[in-house]
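Support case: zinc ion complex. Customer-provided input:
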Amino acid sequence: MKDAAPQTVYLKDYAPPAYLVDEVHLTFRLAPTATRVLSRIRFRPNPESSSRDFFLHGESLTPIRAAIDGQEVRPDITEAGLTCAVPDAPFTWEAEVEISPETNTALEGLYMSRGMYCTQCEAEGFRKITWYPDRPDVMAPFTVRIEGDAPVLLSNGNPVGVGEGWAEWHDPWPKPAYLFALVAGDLVAHRDSFVTRSGKTVDLALWVRPGDEGKCAWGMEALKASMRWDEARYGREYDLDVFNIVAVDDFNMGAMENKGLNIFNSAAVLASPDTATDANFERIESIIAHEYFHNWTGNRITCRDWFQLCLKEGLTVFRDQEFTSDMRSAAVKRIEDVRMLRARQFPEDQGPLAHPVRPESYQEINNFYTATVYEKGAEVIGMLKRLVGDAGYSKALDLYFDRHDGQACTIEDWLKVFEDATGRDLSQFKLWYSQAGTPRVSVEESFEGGTYTLTFTQHTPPTPGQEEKRPLVVPIAVGLLSPNGDEVVPTRMLELTEARQSFAFEGLASKPVPSILRDFSAPVVLERAASRAERAFLMAHDTDPFNRWEAARSLARDSLIATIREGAAPDADWLEGLAAMLRDDTLDPAFRAQVLALPTQSELAQALADRGQTPDPDAIHGAVEGLKDAMARHLSDLAPGLYDAMRVTGPYAPDAEQSGKRALGNAMLGLISRRDAGALAARQYAEADNMTLALAALACLLRVGKGSAELAAFHERWKDDRLVMDKWFALQIAEAKPESAVETAARLTEHPAFDWKNPNRFRAVMGALAGHHAGFHRADGAGYALLADWLIRLDPVNPQTAARMMTAFQTWRRYDAGRQAHAKAALERIAATPDLSRDGAEMVGRMLG
Ligand code: ARG
Ligand code: ZN
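Agent response - structure generated as follows:
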C-alpha cells in the first residue's frame, strides 16, 4: 500500500515515546507465505512523556488477534500502525499477525533469499514484522522463539535452547527494534573462537550456504582482528557468548550490525583467492570491522532518532578507517578514503541532494544512508580528533562509553562529552553537523623579513534550503619545506575559524614552500594557485605522503583540463615526476599505484564546471585516453621491468604487501597493453591463479578490443558463482567504448543470468552503466533513458535499491542544454510513474526541485 501524500518528518518535532518497553517475547512460526508472529510485550508509561497516546507502528501485517493483560482488544488499525486504549499503568500487550516473507521483494522486514529466511530491520523494517514502537529510543531485551523446519534457526543474543524444529534465543542487552534479526535456513558454519582480554571465550560462527565454506576464512580472520583491535584501541570488549555472521545473497546494502547476529550481503563477506580481488578482500576486512565496531558505537550506545544516524555511522566509519590504517598502510588508506569522498560525497554535497551530516527533515529515512552521513560524518570526527589531539580524543571516548552506555543519544550528547573531557567550546564546530555543502578554502601567501604568512579565506556555496553559510572551524594541517626539500616547519594544526584569517610563521631564512591541508585534514576544496613548478616540487619532496600524492594528482588534473580546454599536450613535468616516483623503490608499491590513478571523469566534469565551463563527456574521455597513451609512451622503458619486479611468488595472501605489488603490477600491465595490443595481458590472464590478476588482465584485453574468447571462458568457468558473475557483467560495461556502453548494458539485461531483482546483479549492470561517465552521459540521452526504464521497473519491487541508484542523475544540471533536457525528461518520466514509492518520489523530487 502506498502513502497518498508523503509526510515529511522533522528533527524539531522529536518527542519522547509515550510508552517504554521492559521486555519483548516473540514467537515465529515460519512459513514462506504465512509466517505467524506472536508478540508479548511489557509496556509502561514513560515518566518523561506527557502523552498517553498508545501508538504502535505496523505495515503490511495481517492482524490475527490482540490482547492487553489477557483481555482481547480491538485496536484501530491504519496503514501505518494502530492505536488502542490502554491502562494507565504497566501492562502486557499480546498480538498475533501473519506476514509473507516469500513475497517480500523489498528486502526489508522478514524476507526470503533463495529459500533462506532473513531480516533487515534498519531503519524501519521491524514494523513489517509485528506491531511495535519502531523507533530507536525504545530499547528492550528480547527473547525469541523460532519454530520452523530449517536446520539452522538464529536470532540475537545467546542461545537458550534448541530442539527438533525450534530454537530459543535471549538477548539481555536492551536494544531498539532495528537491531532485531532472525535467520533460518540450510546453512553451514565456519567456526572459531575468541578469548576476550578479560578471559571470556566467545564462540564465533560465519554461516553460509553449503558450497560456500571455502570463502569464509578471510572474514573470520577479519572478525578476530577487529575484536582484538577494539579492545586494544578503544578498550571495548565483546559482551555475549556467541557472535554470528550470516551471508545472504539478496541484500540491499553492505551489511547490518544486528546485535550478536550480523547479516552480510555475501559480496561483503565471502572471498577466496580465485573468486575475489584484493580490493574485495580489503573491503570485506573493513566491513566486518565496521559491523563489529557497531556493537559499541551503535548498539550499546544507539541513536535517539534517525536524524542522529551519523552518531553511529560517522563514528563507526571513522573507527573502521582507523582499523584499516593500522592493519595496512595509513597513507594509502587515507588516499583511498579521500578518493572515495571526492567521488561520492563531494558530488552529493555540491548538487541537489546536498544535506547536512545531521539532516533536519526527511520523507524516507532510507534515502539518508548517504556518503554525507557516513563519509563526511567520519571526516567530521577526524577533524574533532585533530582539534582536541589524540589524548583528548581518547579521554572523550572513554567518557562517552561511560556516560552513555545503554542509552539512545544525540549529536549534542556526543559533543558535550568532548567539551567536558577537553574543556573546549564546540559551539562553532557544531556547524559541521548542520551546514551542508563543501567549503572552499583559498590561500594567499606573503614573505617579509623572515616572516611567512598564510592567509586563508573560506566560503561555502549555497545548498538546497541553505542560502547563507557561516564560517566553520577548519583544521588545516600545514608544514613548510625549504627549497632544498628539508622540512623547516613540521606539521602544525592551524585552526581557521573566520571567513578570512592569517597565520604567521616567524624566523625563516628563506621563503618556504608550503604543504597545506596535510593528510587531508578537513573535507574542503582547497583552491590554491600554486605554480606547476611548486607542485612538481611537492610531488618529489613533500614529507607528508598524502600531499605528495595530492600534488601529483592535481598536476594530472590540470594537465587533463588544459587538454580539454585548449588541446594542450600532457604535462611533461608531471610525467617526469611520475617516472621518478615509479623508479623509487623506497616507496610502497601500493602508494605508487595510487599516484598512477587519474582523477575520475566525473571529477573532471566537476572541475570544469567549477571553472565555468560546461563539461563535454566525450572530450573528457578523449583527454583521459590521450593522457594514458602518453603515460604508456613515457613510461615504456620502465614499465616492463617494474611489472616483473612486482611479480609475487609464494602462496596468495590478500595482505597490504602482496596486494600493493599486484596493484602496481596491474597498473603497469594497463600501460603496457596500450602498446603491445594486449599480448602481455593475454599471458597474465592465462597464467593467473587469482582473481586480482585475472580480472585486471581481462579488463586490459577488453580495453584494447580483445578478450572475447577469455570473456566466454570466464563465463563458462564461473557461471554458477553469483559474485564472480557480477564482475563479469560489470566489467563488460565498464570497459566498453563510450558509444557502446549503453548497448552493452542493454544487451546484458537480456542475458538469462540478469536476475534484476537481486540487488547485486542490478547494481552490477546499472551501477556500471551509471559509473561509465561518457557512456551514461551520452549526448542522445540513451544512457539516461535506459537507466530510467529499469528504475521504473525496479521501484515497485525494491524501492530502496531503485532510489539509491537514482543518485546517478544527481549531477545532471552541470551538463549542456541537450543533455539536461534528456536527463530532465528521464527524471520526469520516473516522477510520473503511477504509485511511485515514497523512496523514489523523494529522490526525483529533490533532483528536479
Ligand atoms: N547500519 C548498516 C551499516 O552501516 C546499514 C544498514 C542500512 N540499511 C538500510 N536499509 N537503510 O552498517
Ligand atoms: Zn554502519
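Residues 518 and 547 are 6 Å apart (CA to CA).

Case will auto-close in a few days if no follow-up is received.
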